[in-house]
Amino acid sequence: MESWLLAGLIFLACPVGMGLMMWFMSKRMGSHSMGNANRQGNAVSPEERLALLEAEKQAPECQIAATNSMSPQERLALLEAEKQGLERQIAAANRDGRTEGDVPVR
User: Is residue 92 part of a domain?
Assistant: First the structure.
C-alpha cells in the first residue's frame, strides 16, 4: 500500500508542479502585459512562449520517468486508480446532465 501511494505521489508531482509553474507564469505575464493589452492584444513574447512550451514538455517526461521507476504491479495499481477516478467523473457528469465530452480530463 505504501509503495502504491508513493508511486502515485511521484506520478502526480510532475504534472502538478508544471501546472503551478504555468499558472504562476500566466499570472506574471497577465499583470506584466496589462498596460499593453489595449495596444497588443494578448501577445506573448517568444521567450515566454518558449518557457510555456518547455513546461508542457517536461510534464510528460516526468510522468514517463516516474512510471519507468515503478514495478508492473505499481503501474497497474496506478492505472486502476486513474480508471476509477475517470469513472467517477463520468458518473458525476451523467448525474449533472453533462455529456462525456464536457468532463475535464487531466
Answer: yes
Cell for 96? 449533472
Q: Is the pLDDT of residue 31 over 60?
A: no
Q: Could you report the per-residue pLDDT of 52-99, keeping only the tens digit for each?
A: 888 888 877 777 887 788 888 888 888 888 899 899 988 888 888 766
Residue 100 CB partners (closer than 8 Å, separation 6+): 90, 93
- Phi then psi for residue 45, to 5 deg, are -70, 155
Q: Is residue 81 part of a domain?
A: yes
Q: Exposed/middle/buried for 7, CB within 10 Å: 0-12, 13-18, 19+?
A: buried
User: How many domains, the chain?
Assistant: 1
SS (H, E, C) 65-92: HHHHCCCHHHHHHHHHHHHHHHHHHHHH
Asked if the structure places residue 39 within a domain, the reply is no
Q: Is residue 38 domain-resident?
A: no
Domain region containing 66? 2-32+45-102
